[in-house]
Amino acid sequence: MRPIRLPEPPSPTLGVPEIFEGGVYSVIRRAVVIGNGFAGSENQSIGLVRALGLGDKRVLYRVTRPRGGINEWLHWLPVSLHKKVEYIVRNLHLLTVRGRKLMPVPKENGGSVGLSSVLEADVKQIVTMARETYEKEGPLLVVASGRDTISIASSIKKLAAENVFVVQIQHPRSQLHRFDLVVTPRHDYYPLTPQAQKQIPRFLRRWITPLEPPDRHVVLTVGALHQIDSATLRSAASAWHDEFAPLPKPLLVVNIGGPTSRCRYGVDLAKQLSACLRGVLATCGSVRISFSERTPEKVSNVIVKELKDNPKVYIWDGAEPNPHMGHLAWADAFVVTADSVSMLSEACSTGKPVYVIGAERCTWKISDFHNTLRERGMVRPFTGSEDISESWSYPPLNDTAEAAMKVHEALAERGWRLRP
Question: What is each CA distance from 204 to 4, 190, 199, 201, 212, in whole angstroms?
Answer without folding.
Answer: 46, 15, 10, 5, 15
